[in-house]
Amino acid sequence: MNVTEAVRSRRSIRAFLDTPIDADKLRRLLETASRAPSGGNVQPWRVFLLQRDAMDRFRSFLGGRSGREAPAYQIYPEGLTEPYRSSRFKVGEDMYALLGIPREDKAARFSWIARNFDFFGAPAGFFCFVDRQMGPPQWSDLGMFLQTFMLLAREAGLDTCPQEAWAMRAESVAEFVGAGQELMLFCGMAIGYRDPGAAVNQLVSDREPLDVWLKEL
Question: Do the Cβ atoms of 10 and 160 come closer than 8 Å?
Fold first, then answer.
């Protein structure tokens, strides 16, 4: 698989097979992903990997906790304007259409959203933290690291789903992984083999045409 194929075939997968992943393979992918660009070579990512027994223990731990937690950050801006608002709205409606969940079935929609906090059934996942002293440039480094990992995963035959939703359970995650107070949770990453029979995995999000966001000078 070349880079173009990896980019075009990468999707946010939301239904996984329970096929286990070789632990050494995940370590190699993460190690290679660390070659992602990093301003000043700061390398701000701090990663906690869950699989097998650790994933089982985490699911049990999270299932035993209830109540609202203070989010690590605001995932989307308040008062999101166009065209960004419509793009966000449409991908959600496209997903629920594939799932057969109508807008008025709020309970089913909330139930589906809650699957975020089970890594969508993936056999492995990780949490990406950043030191609180870091600023926007280092947050962009996290994005480059995560994208590099996702493309390498595609090359290895794996699928992923980056999950900023975990920012809503930041306190529980930090407690379970033992992250220090200096670290802030950015996102989770579900990792596994996609379930080819799951309707939700047919979702392909739209992208704006080049002429909408490119200005050639």
Answer: yes
At 183-194, the pLDDT tens digits run: 999 999 999 999
Q: Where are the domains of the chain?
A: 12-68+118-198
- DSSP-derived secondary structure for 67-104: S----SS-SS-TTPPTTHHHHHHHHHHHHHHHHT--TT
Local structure of residue 36 (DSSP, 8 states): S
The predicted structure's pLDDT at residue 67: 76
Name the token pair of 4: 């173009």
Instruction: Please report where in the chains the tokens 């699957």 appear, as a residue.
Output: 115
- Could you tell me the CATH superfamily of domain 12-68+118-198? NADH Oxidase (3.40.109.10)
In degrees and rounded to multiples of 5, residue 157 shows phi and psi of 85, 10
Q: What is the mean pLDDT of residues 119-142?
A: 97
DSSP 8-state code for residue 178: T
Question: Do 13 and 111 meet the contact criterion of CB atoms below 8 Å apart?
Answer: no
Q: Are 180 and 130 in contact (CB under 8 A)?
A: no
Residue ranges of the alpha helices (H) in 101-198? 106-114, 136-155, 170-177
Q: Which residue has the higher pLDDT, 208 or 1?
A: 208
Whole-prediction pTM: 0.95
Confidence of residue 25 (pLDDT cuts 50, 70, 90): very high
